[in-house]
Amino acid sequence: MGGVAFEVAFEGDALALGEEHLRFVSPPELARPLVVVKVDASVRSAGPREDPRRIDAGPGWVRTADAHVRWRREGHGRYAAEAELEAPYGLSHMTTALTGALVSAEGGLVLHAAAVVLEERAVLLIGPSGAGKTSAACLCEGTRWLAKDRVALLPTGEGWRAWGMPGGDDITLPQAPNRPLPVAAIARVRRADEAPSLRRLDPLRALVALRESTQTAGSEPALDAPAALAEAVPVYELRGRLDRPLTASLREALA
To answer: Mean of the pLDDT values across residues 33-58?
Structure first.
């Protein structure tokens, strides 16, 4: 699934990925995982109903309402895990939660972001809920969407790579295959009653923008990964009315 390959073993047929998660499975011919995790899973009885969106995590473990997982590192980019999952959604929720945990363990992060693919590079649109990320993505005519609401990012020897994670409102563009792509730029979307413009942020404002969009599991986001990302990738503010195509402006900024 994007930059993380899950090798899950379990008995029976009670577990399956949900429809939304299936949209983010990488085509085998394009799969180039940066992280591989082998999961020994068992199916457990349903427990008390909890918020299915909540994720708790700590060193070597991650937990959702229907997925309890313990994981350990076995080498660079290689992990093993044991999981207790509830049907029918435990497998889907495990992949989401464990992706975040392993990406963080490898020095990366998950951003609350939409993303489009421009010339085989990812352009991320970040901001809090209601900022206009989905609207801005829909205005990137001629591109394809990589993510609707969450993006996983990892540093590699060839720069930062990004891929999409499940969730978010539909974007009226074709979907790109979900594989790790180089990150061209990140834009903090900010609505204003003026013509849209792109302005590169200074390092401090770039760090603030990234930190406010970093997703964590029950703790304050660390500064190391956002700071490294801000140093390596240009961060812009996309400010103005979201009422016209944005692709040309993005191309000009990235030229």
So the answer is: 86
pLDDT digits (tens, 9 = 90+) for 75-122: 999 999 999 999 889 999 999 999 999 999 999 999 999 999 999 999
Q: What single string gives the DSSP state of each residue in 34-103?
A: SEEEEEEEEE----S---TT--EEETTEEEETTEEEEEEEEETTEEEEEEEE-TTTHHHHHHHHHHHHHH
Of 122, 44, 51, 50, residue with least CA distance to 83: 44
Indicate where the chain has its CATH 3.90.228.20 domain(s).
Answer: 109-254
Q: What angle do CA 4, 188, 114 make, to 5 degrees?
A: 40
Which segments within the chain are labelled E, that is strand?
Answer: 4-9, 35-43, 56-58, 61-64, 67-75, 78-85, 109-118, 121-126, 144-147, 150-156, 159-165, 181-191, 197-200, 214-215, 235-240
CA–CA separation, 108 and 89 (whole Å):
26
- The structure tokens listed for 157 are 């020897």
For tokens 């909540």, the residue is 54
Give the domain 109-254 fold. Phosphoenolpyruvate Carboxykinase; domain 3 (3.90.228)
* 183-209 per-position pLDDT tens digit: 999 999 999 999 999 999 999 999 999
